[in-house]
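Worked example 3. Consider a protein that binds coenzyme A.
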Amino acid sequence: MSYTNILVTKKETIATVTINRPNKLNALNKDTIAELHSVCKALDKDKNIKAILLTGSGEKAFVAGADIAEFANFTSKQGAKLAAKGQETLFNFIENLSTPVIAAINGFALGGGLELAMACHFRIASDNAKMGLPEVSLGVIPGYGGTQRLPQLIGKGRAMELIMTASMINAEKAEAYGLVNHVTTLEELLPYCIKLASKISNNSSVAIKYAIKAINAGFIHDVDGYATEIKAFGTCFGTRDFKEGTTAFLEKRKANFPGA
Ligand code: COA
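Given these inputs, the predicted complex is written out as structure tokens:
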């Protein structure tokens, strides 16, 4: 499948998806959101792919936000529809994907760009990265899950301050806040993420799928995360990966997971 606004490369078990609108600092327009949905869906179905890296093209931006030009003239109804559709097709979709998605934040991650990074399972940033949710400076609020995921990741008080002031924080502060897990140089960003993704690839993709499900369940108000964990834990016992993982341990050899 060919895409206009994203680039996709695959190496062994790792796919790298690059948002490729450098002239617009990789701003997320409707077509890019649709393409990201479609590529994530296809990669999730690809049994050879064990981890996905998401990054932006160029050296300046991961994603500088939702495409402001596209929604500047919207009505309230169109605004609500934009947020609902975006959340459903991309942001919630990535958060609940069975295949781990790592955001490699290589520059500005603002507004919808930071929301996209926060929807990924975890984030690594290069030291030139700048992050923020500046929507209130445009007279709007974050609409792709930012008011929910930012407080989950950095705490309510810090999220309130960052959103109300529309400020950007640098990579060092983002790491101190727990918004990103590690900071590297720009050159080291993708190699570092690939190393992490390779480590993930050695483990049971089935168990990882259930771990994602159980962790996410704890953040849904009417779902019991502990009960979800118990059920998922039990399900793992019926998988070939579990048989292989435990047998390999007892036979003192490296597991070779069938991914089923
Ligand atoms: N939507 C649409 N276009 C965007 C964009 C966005 N979110 N962010 C950047 N662009 C475009 C600019 O309009 C410009 O296009 P042009 O060359 O056709 O005029 C191009 O990308 C380069 O951006 P520019 O502003 O010239 O770069 P800069 O280095 O001076 O500033 C930023 C970088 C990130 C500080 C600035 O682009 C910015 O504030 N962007 C908007 C951030 C934002 O509010 N995001 C939340 C949206 S909800």
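Take a moment to read the result before moving on. The first helix runs from residue 30 to 45. Residues 24-25, 27, 64-69, 108, 110-112, 134-135, 138 surround coenzyme A (CB under 6 Å).
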